[in-house]
Amino acid sequence: MESVQEPGVSPSPVLVHDLGTRTDSQPLYSIASQALSTLAIDEMQHYPCLETSQGWVLVLDPASLQTFLWRPQDGERIQLPPKEHGFPEHCKCLLSNMPGAASDCSVVACDLDESEMWVCKIGASKWDRHRYKLTTCRNGGIPRMVNIGRCQGIAAVCGKIYFEITSYDKGVIEFNEKEGLKLGTIWVDILCRPLL
To answer: Are residues 163 and 96 in contact, defined by beta-carbon separation less than 8 angstroms?
Structure first.
């Protein structure tokens, strides 16, 4: 990583907020010292970035459309194939597993405005676009479209991505080399919890 830590900035863990203004530095909040400072982070100054819950960031070079995963803690990069077009303006990135050069990890970019996602397995030669139609019924049988990227409770477990559709229905995205991406649902009985 090309950036230099400014005096007074505590070590990780930190929260970095990209204001999208492409200024010379980004606001940085140290969780350890509860202090706010600024830091110049090259990847965040020049490229659109999508964070993941695993600590990796999906980065797109707007000039070449080349993509890569970047780990800010140590600067490690995992090269991904270029995209034919950039990512949507409102997007969320998910990883099916912890990435590594030899891992069985798929990178998923969910469009938050449309019912589509782009998927790329680490080591693959291209991004695949997947459109989906996921509908659930509200009380009274009124259908409601569901956008996976906007669902609550998204988690990656053992190479699959789970998300909450309703309190009973959970969605699951499975990645299979032969069958490709498979979208399904599982029914989960609500547990009765004692009131405190």
So the answer is: no
Nearest alpha-carbon partner for 95 in 70, 121, 77, 75: 121
**Distance (Å, rounded) from C-alpha 77 to C-alpha 74?**
9
Give the contacts of 195 (CB within 8 A, at least 6 positions apart). none
Please report which helix (H) or strand (E) contains residue 44, including its range.
helix 42-46
Question: pLDDT truncated to tens, each residue of the chain (196 aa)?
Answer: 333 344 443 455 556 555 555 556 666 666 777 777 766 666 656 677 778 888 888 888 888 888 999 887 778 889 999 998 888 888 888 888 888 756 688 898 888 888 888 888 888 899 988 888 777 776 777 777 777 777 777 777 878 888 887 777 788 888 777 777 788 888 877 655 555 5
pTM of the predicted structure, to 2 decimals: 0.71
75 and 106 Cβ atoms separated by less than 8 Å:
no
Taking CA atoms, 127 is separated from 14, 119, 124, 174, in Å, by 31, 6, 8, 16
Please give the DSSP secondary-structure letter assigned to residue 43.
H
